[in-house]
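Pipeline run #58 for the internal structure catalog. This entry was flagged by the ingest filter as a single-chain record with no existing model, so it goes straight to prediction. Upstream metadata was stripped on purpose; only the residue string is passed forward. Reviewer on rotation: M.T. Logging verbosity set to normal.
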Amino acid sequence: MTELKEVIKGCVCGDNACYETVYNMFYPTVYGVCSRYSTTNEEMEDFIQESFIKIFNNIDKFDATTAIPNLKFGGWAKTISRNFCIDQVRKFKPTMCEDYQTSKLSDEIDLEYDDLRYDESQIIKAMGKLSPRYKTVFNMFYFDGLSHKQIADKLSIKEGASKANLYCAKKRLKNILTDNNGLDY
């Protein structure tokens, strides 16, 4: 615990070895976020790199006085990464689905099919086949726990568009998973 506080202090002072330590410790956290928002490996690598740049540029703002700094720093890094990814996705706002009639959304699609359940890794793998707009809204709703209002605010879209994109994402995911029994895609 104290070690991370010292490493963070080293980063604030510009110590390259401390930057490398933080990068190695929290790469899995940042990778997890960026991989869910990106559509290609190149884009994911860019998101990871830019996220770490933001983390390191703002590391002096992190409060390491908590009793569990590793957990708190991990959450802080995750938030910075998520916000960066959302900002990048927001640039593609014109491609976001505009609005569905609410009646079309009342028929919620579950990701269970004929008593088959899909685990998170299968769903994440299948998400790679979604369009950026569907993937983003699905990710923000299920993995980040945001409401449709919060998603709409962050992406500068209508709340109905968030609901429509989630509906379409779930429908597409269900097709991807059931067409391939959730195994090969």
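catalog note: The longest helix spans residues 16-37.
catalog note: The chain is about 70% helix and 0% strand.
status: ready for reviewer M.T.
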